[in-house]
Design brief:
single chain, 73% helix, mainly alpha, 0% strand, 99 residues
Amino acid sequence: MYFMCESRVIDPNLVGGHMLAGYLTEMELNDVEFELIRVCVAARFAQSLTLGAFNHSLNPTNDYLLLTAKNGWVIFDRFWKQKPEEIDGKWREILQSYK
């Protein structure tokens, strides 16, 4: 999810497909695990953005805590609003391109 926030070359929603391609060179995912990846990415986004905001409220001079929030909320919103089957399909296309 951090790579998604830093992506300036490709659509952030496609970054996961490329990350998975690298991961799958060493490990395997079954169909259920593949379907859950999207939810896991969203959960990590929510966790990072929420904890960053909370910790910044405790330490308002530490702007480092807001780095992910700079464009993270917008990317997270776009990611979560995209239909799961669209993301899965795009990621599977990316995986095929690495074979």
